[in-house]
């Protein structure tokens, strides 16, 4: 969800930096006068510019009670306010909880970070047997498997009938985009495998482990490990721009959640800013709870923040982005980067209709949580602006910066749409429509069924109930879907034809703004005989 939106990569505010020896800012040594006024202004300016219904913010400061505040409404068109206890889906911010759970099991000597995964999960298989043998527990968390960006995400975005056994089976059929440990490509699927590993080695489901070993000891009373466990009306709604001409553009609309429990270990936790503040406090305390009890050791804390793979590198800040990192890396469930000359440990999370941010500057003893009920990138801009205020950075207009970025992304998307994505290419079906009908199978995803319906065709993605649509001609032996509004991204469906018969089906997302999790382009269907 790019352009005016943000996708499941989050606002990849990434990288590695060191802040050793830097003095604490003055506000961290004494209470900061005017913090309410400053944060209120930052949030108000972003909410106005991006038409954001609701935001929640937490600021953690060493030796002080967390600063917590909600803004706006939970759901557009309704009066219920966002407060410090409104639950949001924190999405991929959940990954750090899964990393911490594995770290706790390593401390208990039930696992080894660098032991082969097949020692614990013999059923684990990648496409290359050599990679299967070399793949370690650590490799589950660090996005260097060689799998392409978002590989397998159509198994759980939107919710499907797939389960963890099918996810494990699917891995052997997902084709790598690069060599093993040869670079960074973000994924969710291996965090699902990490959840399976936690269950096997602890004897507790991922949900129960996270609840009893992390959420309850921290007193995260609002938090649940899965959206389906929410039992309160104080839940943030979901909002998105559904077009026209494409998702990420147009007016803001209320949409419904579409993620299922399969994604929990990668992105399932729902929590309030009051909860997530407690999570950042224990992170900044390197695993130590108030009173001295530990959830994990200092050594494990250091391991979780140690970058394992380079995400990006640059010459640093520019006029368009003064906080652009020199080096960006991914650790065990955290991005690590330099930000304004200090180390920033952070993550973001994106679900349909919500984007969230967590960030820490350990050298300054500060943490920030920004939860939003929109797909727009507003939460990342608020995060950066608050960080600048707390660190005493030079004045910079982050609102104008994010508006300009979004305008540029939208213009690029419009150019792509004008080049052909929004109008049918030349060409037409070369076969009678009935000849395209049938059942087709992709090895990792499952089946689609094409049926003749009236004077046209219809498609049903068997594992994904939301993906049912008529098919419209869209060029030579190619069609497009018309999924219901809010049901995800539409697809271009191309049939390979030889000797008057369909020999295969491939797809891609219709919109250039499509979130990478709609990985239609990874599908390769063949007829089921």
User: What share of residues is helical?
Assistant: 25-40%
- Major sheet: size, sense and barrel closure? 8 strands, antiparallel
Oligomer: single chain
Structural class estimated from helices and strands: alpha+beta
Judging from the principal axes of the Cα atoms, what is the shape? Answer: globular
Beta-strand content estimate:
15-25%
Cα separation of the termini: 37 Å
What ranges have pLDDT less than 50 throughout 5 or more consecutive residues?
1-32
Tally of helical segments:
12
Adjacency order of strands in the biggest sheet:
2-1-12-11-10-9-8-7
| pLDDT averaged residue by residue | 92
What does this structure look like?
The structure is a single chain. The protein is α+β, with helices and mostly antiparallel strands and 529 residues long. The chain has helices spanning 26-29, 35-50, 95-107, 129-134, 164-171, 189-202, 206-218, 264-267, 273-284, 298-304, 378-391, 398-421; strands at residues 54-61, 67-72, 88-89, 238-241, 252-255, 270-271, 309-313, 327-330, 335-339, 342-351, 354-361, 366-372, 438-442, 446-453, 456-461, 468-473, 478-481, 491-498, 501-509, 524-527. Strands 2-1-12-11-10-9-8-7 form an eight-stranded antiparallel β-sheet, sandwiched between helices. Strands 13-14-15-16-17-18-19-20 form an eight-stranded antiparallel β-barrel. A hairpin with a 2-residue loop joins strand 14 and strand 15. Helix 2 runs antiparallel to helix 11 (378-391), helix 3 (95-107) packs across helix 10 (298-304) and helix 11 runs antiparallel to helix 12 (398-421).
């Amino acid at each position: 969800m790019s352009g005016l939106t943000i996708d499941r990569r989050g606002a990849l505010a990434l990288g590695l930096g060191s802040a050793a020896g830097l003095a604490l800012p003055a506000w961290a040594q004494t209470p900061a006068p005017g913090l309410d006024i400053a944060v209120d202004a930052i949030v108000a300016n972003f909410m106005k510019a991006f038409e954001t219904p609701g935001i929640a913010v937490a600021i953690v400061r060493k030796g002080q009670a967390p600063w917590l505040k909600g803004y706006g409404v939970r759901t557009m068109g309704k009066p219920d306010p966002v407060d410090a206890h409104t639950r949001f889906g924190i999405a991929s911010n959940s990954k750090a909880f899964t990393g911490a759970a594995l770290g706790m099991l390593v401390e208990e000597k039930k696992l080894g970070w660098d032991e082969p995964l097949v020692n614990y999960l013999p059923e684990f298989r990648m496409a290359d047997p050599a990679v299967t043998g070399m793949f370690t527990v650590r490799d589950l968390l660090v996005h260097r498997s060689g799998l392409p960006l978002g590989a397998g995400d159509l198994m759980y975005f939107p919710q499907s009938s797939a389960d963890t056994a099918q996810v494990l089976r699917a891995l052997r059929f997902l084709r790598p985009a690069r060599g093993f440990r040869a670079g960074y490509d973000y994924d969710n699927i291996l965090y699902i495998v990490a959840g399976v590993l936690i269950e096997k080695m602890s004897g507790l489901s991922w949900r129960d482990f996270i609840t009893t070993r992390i959420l309850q000891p921290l007193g995260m009373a609002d938090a649940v490990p899965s959206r389906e466990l929410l039992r309160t009306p104080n839940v943030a709604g979901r909002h998105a721009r559904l077009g026209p001409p494409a998702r990420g553009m147009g007016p803001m609309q209320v949409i419904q959640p579409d993620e299922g429990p399969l994604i929990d270990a990668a992105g399932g936790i729902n929590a309030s800013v009051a909860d997530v503040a407690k999570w950042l406090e224990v992170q900044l305390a390197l695993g130590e709870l108030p009173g001295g009890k530990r959830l994990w050791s200092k050594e494990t804390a250091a391991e979780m923040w140690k970058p394992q793979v380079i995400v990006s590198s640059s010459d640093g800040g520019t006029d368009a982005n003064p906080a652009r990192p020199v080096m960006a890396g991914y650790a065990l469930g955290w991005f690590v980067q330099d930000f304004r000359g200090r180390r920033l440990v952070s993550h973001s999370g994106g679900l349909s209709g919500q984007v969230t941010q967590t960030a820490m500057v350990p050298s300054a003893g500060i943490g920030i949580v920004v939860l939003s009920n929109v797909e727009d990138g507003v939460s990342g801009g608020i995060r950066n602006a608050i960080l600048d205020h707390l660190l005493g950075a030079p004045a910079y207009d982050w609102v104008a910066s994010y508006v300009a970025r979004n305008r540029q992304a939208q213009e690029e998307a419009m150019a792509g749409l004008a080049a052909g994505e929004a109008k049918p290419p030349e060409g037409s079906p070369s076969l009678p429509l009935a000849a395209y009908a049938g059942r087709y199978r992709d090895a990792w995803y499952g089946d689609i069924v094409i049926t003749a319906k009236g004077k046209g065709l219809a498609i049903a993605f068997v594992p994904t109930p939301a993906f049912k649509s008529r098919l419209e001609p869209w060029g030579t032996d190619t069609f497009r879907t018309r999924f219901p509004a809010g049901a995800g991204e539409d697809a271009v469906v191309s049939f390979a034809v030889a000797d008057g018969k369909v020999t295969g089906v491939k797809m891609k997302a219709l919109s250039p703004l499509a979130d990478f999790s709609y990985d239609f382009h990874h599908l390769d269907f063949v007829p089921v005989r």
